[in-house]
Amino acid sequence: MRYNRQIVLPQIDLDGQEKICRAKVLIIGMGGLGTAVAQSLCGSGVGNLTLVDDDVVNATNLPRQWLYSDNQCGMPKVAAAKEKLAMINRECVIDTVDERLTKPALQALSESHQVIVDCTDNLAARRLNNEVSWQTNTPLVSGAAVRFEGQLFVSIPHTKMPCYGCLEQRFTQTELSCTETGILSPVVSLIGVSQAQLVLQILTGFGVLPVGKLTVFDGLHFQWHSFTIPPNAHCQVCQTQPAEQL
Ligand SMILES: [Zn+2]
């Protein structure tokens, strides 16, 4: 009865909670986004989380990466996260990968997970996650946050909807790092928790998933905006690998 408050929601019900409890979710990047995603999914009852990050906990992480505490500074992030998540929900099985994944390693891992959650902070990793999502037919939930701004994007491979590459080409995303530009603590957590909701929607099918839409949070005006992104006919990820060839 631990999950009673979710089960009473008719859109979730016992059936939806069972899907959540059986799910395996891959979280890439355990910074501000990844820690918020992991805490929310672990609490919600996701059965298995795999955490990927090669970084260690630093004091400058603590204002927004609330999963970690002072005494964990210097620890690998994935080990520190596992320790804390076990205290939140011991029913959640946590696997950890303390290294930057090569493409073959990421492909192998993606094949055994139902959703990839992109919580990385650089374009190269985002491109790799998108390619692997499409190649392994694994839904991708991307989040990003910098300064007072956040963005969310869901890609479901082989649905004739755009992939993250289509979005990136349209907006020519600049590589902004939180180290140089700053980030407001609640903004990154808000985006991370939103990614967790999108994962639950994919796992259980409740509500309307914003596939093909870029959702942007403007923290200076406290407003959400949504933009429809058409597939890019020249996208090298989703337009060169039609579903029937897989
Ligand atoms: Zn594309």
Topology:
Blueprint: H1 4-7, H2 13-22, E1 24-28, H3 32-44, E2 48-52, H4 77-88, E3 93-97, H5 103-111, E4 115-118, H6 123-136, E5 140-146, E6 149-155, H7 164-171, H8 178-181, H9 185-204, E7 213-218, E8 223-228
Parallel strand pairs: 1-2, 1-4, 2-3, 4-5
Antiparallel strand pairs: 5-6, 6-7, 7-8
Helix pairs in contact: 3-9, 5-6
Zinc ion (ZN) binds next to α7.
Provide the descriptors you would attach to this structure in a database record.
binds zinc ion, 8-stranded mixed beta sheet, 38% helix, Rossmann fold, 246 residues, 8 strands, alpha/beta
The largest β sheet comes out as: 8 strands, mixed
Proportion of beta-strand residues: 15-25%
SSE-based structural type: alpha/beta
Termini separation: 42 Å
- Spatially, the strands of the biggest sheet line up as 3-2-1-4-5-6-7-8
Top CATH class: Alpha Beta
Number of strands: 8
Helix content: 25-40%
> How is the CATH topology named?
Rossmann fold
Give the C-alpha Rg: 17 Å
Classified in CATH, the superfamily is: NAD(P)-binding Rossmann-like Domain
Shape: globular
Total number of distinct structural domains? 1
Tally of alpha and pi helices:
9
Structural write-up:
The chain is α/β, with parallel strands linked by helices and about 250 residues long. The protein has a single domain (about 5-230), classed as NAD(P)-binding Rossmann-like Domain (Rossmann fold). The protein is built from nine helices and eight strands. It has an eight-stranded mixed β-sheet, with helices on both faces. The protein is globular. The N and C termini lie far apart (about 40 Å). About 45% of the residues are buried. The mean pLDDT is about 95. It binds zinc ion. Zinc ion binds near residues 163, 165, 166, 235 and 237.
